[in-house]
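TL;DR need structure tokens for one chain.
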Amino acid sequence: MAESRWWVSTWRWNEGLGWWLLAAVGLGPEPWVLLIPRSATPFAFPLEILRVLVVLGSGRARRKGCGQVMNSNTPSSSAGGAGSAEPTAPRRNSKRPKYSRFTQQELPACKPILTPKWVISTFLLVSVVFIPIGVVSLLASRDVVEIVHRYDAECIPVGSRNNRVGFIQSSRDKTCNRTITVPKHMGQPIYVYYQLDNFYQNHRRYVRSRNDQQLRSPGSERETSSCSPEDTTPDGNPIVPCGLIAWSLFNDTYGITRNNQELAINKRDISWKSDRDRKFGDNVFPRNFQNGTLIGGGSLNASIPLSQQEDLIRGGFGRRGGRDGERSRRQKASSEQHFVPFGSASVLLAEF
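>> reply
TL;DR here they are.
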């Protein structure tokens, strides 16, 4: 029988398991491992080693205190072998999740210490960068001239204000002349927009009532499944373009004069080029669209493809001709109202 010898071969700190690991050899060639939790004090090492030596010397391997003796050559107690002297307990399935440095938030990370000096220096650096940007943006915004003039209430006769829908759908002349005062110099180009208040165009039913495939391809003109309720005519023919968005095309008309001279309004390039090239086909033409006299929207020229009808693509138009505006210069804006916003309608002049 080989002589029993005892010595400690190695020890180290295992950061992942959180144990002090000591590997030793006892009882000849049979190895054993002593695990001591990190909560144990250094003074407990000699006591635990002595405790294991006494257990091995008596020929019994057992758990004692916070130390654990494991024999790599001895069958596990959960295996329930026939040569085991002691009764084995049934192995319990642990619900503890598998260890991972990611789930345990032990990945390497930068954790700066937020000292007052470090925080103050960071705020000063950010302010030095963004204060000049804010000053430049503020000065640039002050030079922008924007004039908003509401006309929907004044352009309806007093006797018809209780029945605005009936007045707009009637055949009466709806031309309305308004005088707009320009408070300061406006350089070219001057953009003309219309502004609608209380017009909820972000409603889900309104936003979904369109068909992009129909707008791009002439072979998909019958794709009107998502355009309800403005999808087909009473005869069953498809409406191109279909849907509530196209049906509510803004159809008020504007004209601007100064010193009895009409200023030209250019409606070209008022929409994104990417929208004209990708979303609207150059060989798709309006069909069965409304005639513009009904409430809700205007008419489209059936001989012009949708990619060139920029009033449909974007509801705004810009003036790119004429002279610069002058300070306190009065301009006359004439409008013909056909659209009922059930809110307020305004004309907006802006210089960018």
